[in-house]
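As agreed, record passed on underneath.
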Amino acid sequence: MRLLLPLLVLVALVAMLMLRGYVHSEILADHRIRPEAATGKVPEKILDGGPVIDTRGGRATSVRVPDHRLVLTFDDGPDPTWTPKVLDVLKKHHAHAVFFVTGTMTSRYPELVKRMVDEGHEVGLHTFNHPDLSYLSKKRIDWELSTNQLAITGAAGIRTSLFRPPYSSFADAMDDKSWPVTEYIGTRGYITVVNNTDSEDWQKPGVDEIIRRATPHGGKGAIVLMHDSGGDRHQTVQALDTFLPKLQARGYTFDNLTEALDAPSASTEVTGLDLWKGKAWIFLVSAADGITDVLVVGLAVIGALVISRFVLMLLLSGAHARRVRSRRFRWGPPVTEPVSVLVPAYNEAKCIENTVRSLMASEHPIEVIVIDDGSSDGTARIVEAMGLPNVRVVRQLNAGKPAALNRGLANARHDIVVMMDGDTVFEPATVRELVQPFGDPRVGAVAGNAKVGNRDSLIGAWQHIEYVMGFNLDRRMYDILRCMPTIPGAVGAFRRSALERVGGMSDDTLAEDTDITMAMHRDGWRVVYAEKARAWTEAPESVQQLWSQRYRWSYGTMQAIWKHRRAVLERGASGRFGRVGLPLVSLFMVVAPLLAPLIDVFLLYGVVFGQTQKTIVAWLGVLALQAVCAAYAFRLDKERMTHLISLPLQQILYRQLMYVVLLQSWITALTGGRLRWQKLRRTGVVEAPGGPVPTQRSRRSSSDRRPVA
């Protein structure tokens, strides 16, 4: 069920794009034109007859337009620019015409078709996508006709019996390929209308030439071919304004087809279910166009955000590295006094021994406080049985991680407190490197460098890339901007006095690490990043576990942003974070990931239905930019580049999962749902480089779900 709503949203967006692609002739469009063929199968009376061909009921007859009557016909519309101008000229000179409209244009501009009908003009079918029907199967021809008719019904509430084939000409141009189509069209109840005077206005030969070609000889009647769409039609509009009064002065009348033939109207009113089907079609097309326009804007926004973020990361992370790696750089006096390390643990039997033993190798004097939060797997007994100096166990009933950390803080003996997870191991130098920034009295908290220890699996490798590039490169950037959003729970340090000033760890959100970091900023403390304070954590090894973790992170981040939203209006340090930090965090951590799927959606759409080569080149350009950032991040962290081999696959598969997770988090937030804290299943195989091999005790099973605090 957790996937259902996000998937429905995604399917709806894809469906809208598909509908738009179809309506805009990007899907199923066929631009082939068959060359002329023999005429042996076409009856002579058709070749020598008039431009109105009726093959209904098995007959084959044709009709000419009476003398001094002209039927102006306009193909390929309606067009939002030129059709209104044509209609204005016709209205000005009290003339009627026939508009052979395509389904694609009718669906997009239904109000123009309604205006045609309201002003006394007739409309006819010109197929939906304007293909050469001689190439198509009967099933596809039926589709072209019915969908064209559906669009006309939705636009004007009528059904028409007039049809003009795309790429048609005079009756005597009918051949053995087009005639069978004309016969079949008759079986579907349509009259085929070609022409016997062609203005050739599509060539833009000039106003005078258009008039000359459109004018019949000797006072004869004619069906005149013109166009109100398909390009610049200003010459057509100018020619009409001269042609109409000129021929009216010579005794010609300009009627629609059935008026000219003194025949019953070709249009019939549609009611009931068929009418509502047509209206639903027009509504869906309008919605698809509107949604696509919004998506295009979203694509532009995400493009700008992605490029801006990459540029900022490259520039500012480089500046951060140069600053902290300079020989002259000092945070302040060296920090040598002992610190307290808090290890909240709930059912960490598999991991806790590795965690504690890694701390015992610390190069900095520490006390270790393991807060057992109501474990049921003997976590506390494992630590107590180790009998290590400066290691204490504090037990409490299960109350959640924030409560466990606050309990540890109350039992801590020192002024600097390091916090880590029960499944994380430190390198010997981690604590020392983590606390050195406290030599600057303005620093209230320090974020360490969290790394994925179990990176051998594909999911682990993808998270390794994400940690090095998406988290640690970000932290360098946010350090320079002085708006670090999150101190990782796996490796962070706090000035005890700063924690007490903001009320300690809060359980208001599911991302207590983000919440406390934002609170520190608002209280005026600096939050910095210590790149050498490395911690090795066990990342989720299954899609289910990864989903649970990231769902909680995403939702918790949204909660933290909402909790601290008033900082936008406040003054001082809180106001600075509110007007700089919160917008950046919201854009780069919430909005950008939410819109990022548009890159992939339009990639798929472009590859299948659009300009494939340009689309692939554009996507590869974005991937190349990401690869540059990733390579730079790996270089800064002195990581092996071989893991970047999986980067393209990460972008195709892993990123999609993160999108759906974030979308579900948004839905949970907007619907007011509540999310349970979920504990991941651990294996206990992560250790610091050169650290101890996990013992048999560390491999005991643990619960995979943590009770709600």
In short: Confidence is low (pLDDT under 50) at residues 691-709.
